[in-house]
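Try this one yourself first.
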C-alpha cells in the first residue's frame, strides 16, 4: 500500500538547495532516511507520494554521484511538492 509523505527533515540545507538537503521523510506510520526512501521507491514505484492541493505526485529514486535521494515526479504544478512539506 502506498504511503503519503506528511513531513520532511532538511538536515543539509547548508550543502544543497534542492531535494538533496532532505535527510528524512515522514509518513503517518514511520520515518525513512533518504537512502531508505530511495530504496523503497526503487523497488516499489509509487509506494511513497506527496499530495498537495488535490494533486498527487509519486516520489522517484534519484542517484547523483554516490548520493541516493528522492524527489517528486513531474506533475501539473511548478511548486516543489516535497520541499514545501512542513518539518517533522
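Now uncover the answer:
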Amino acid at each position: 500500500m502506498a504511503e503519503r509523505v506528511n513531513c520532511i527533515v532538511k538536515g543539509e540545507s547548508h550543502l544543497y538547495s534542492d531535494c538533496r538537503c532532505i535527510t528524512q521523510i515522514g509518513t503517518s506510520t514511520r520515518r525513512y532516511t533518504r537512502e531508505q526512501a530511495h530504496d523503497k521507491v526503487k523497488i516499489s514505484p509509487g509506494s511513497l507520494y506527496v499530495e498537495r492541493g488535490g494533486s498527487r505526485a509519486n516520489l522517484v529514486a534519484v542517484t547523483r554521484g554516490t548520493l541516493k535521494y528522492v524527489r517528486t515526479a513531474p506533475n501539473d504544478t511548478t511548486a516543489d511538492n516535497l520541499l514545501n512539506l512542513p518539518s517533522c
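Discussion: The chain has one domain: 3-72. Residues 3-72 form one domain.
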